[in-house]
Amino acid sequence: MFTGIVQGRGKVLSVTPEGRRVRMVVALPERSQAPIEVGASVALAGVCLTFVEGTTDAAAFDIIDETLRLTTLGGLGPGDDVNVERAARMSDEIGGHLLSGHICGTARLMARDAGDTHLTLTLQLAAELVPYVLPKGYVGLDGCSLTVGESVSDDGAFTVHLIPETLRVTTLGDLRIGDRLNVEVDAMTRAVVDTVERVMTRRRSQDA
């Protein structure tokens, strides 16, 4: 489990194909460099991965082909930066919202609007995720817990507003038009929306 409060940028050191998976080695940022054991969970760009060997200076993760296909990790190479968060502990402050690291899909960056004290990003959701992203609700983007802006269009375009601290710690400020981001929708929102839809579908079938 994660909180969506990114601890810093990791640096991809190597990506080595191994059959139907790749082994990615990442240098973790300073705030993530507590002792780490084999089997520990680490979120890279919001994707929950398992530490398999190495140290925080060169942490190795095995990534299967399905994860590479469904997320942006397949596009990473040596030298790329990636958002990092270690798994939350029971004593940690939940400053964002609870995330599982199980990515639901991706969104594409459509526009950037930079001000003196903020950056506004406009993103386009995949169609299947549109019902779960609501104005002023939560969404995880590349592992960052963010609040959705004032509106979400019928076709799934929405905005997020980023403060300087978020831009300093994460990779979001480096995004270019057309880039994809990993999306994890809020689990509670998804449960409510799906439950309401099932109830309404049952009622419609009974009334027919």
Mean pLDDT: 93
The shape, in one word, is globular
End-to-end Cα distance, whole Å, is: 43 Å
Continuous helix count = 3
Low-confidence stretches: none
Radius of gyration: 18 Å
Largest sheet data: 6 strands, antiparallel, barrel
**Number of beta-strand segments:** 12
Kindly estimate the percentage of residues that lie in beta strands according to DSSP: 35-45%
Order of helices and strands: EEEEEHEEEEEEHEH
Helix proportion of residues, in percent? 10-25%
Structural class category: alpha+beta
How are the strands of the biggest sheet laid out side by side? 1-2-5-4-3-6
List its salient traits:
12 strands, 3 helices, single chain, 16% helix, globular, alpha+beta, 208 residues, 6-stranded antiparallel beta barrel
Quick rundown:
This protein is an alpha+beta fold and 208 residues long. The chain contains three helices and twelve strands.
Describe the model.
By secondary structure, the protein is an alpha+beta fold. Helices cover 16% and strands 41% of the residues. It has three helices and twelve strands. It has helices at 65-70, 164-169, 187-207, and strands at residues 8-18, 21-27, 41-44, 47-55, 58-64, 81-86, 105-114, 119-125, 138-141, 144-152, 157-162, 180-185. The protein has a six-stranded antiparallel beta barrel. A six-stranded antiparallel beta barrel has the order 7-8-11-10-9-12. A hairpin with a 2-residue loop joins strand 1 and strand 2. The longest helix is centred in the C-terminal third of the chain and has 21 residues, at 187-207. The chain is globular. It starts with 7 loop residues before the first strand and ends with a helix. The model has no long low-confidence stretch (mean pLDDT 93).
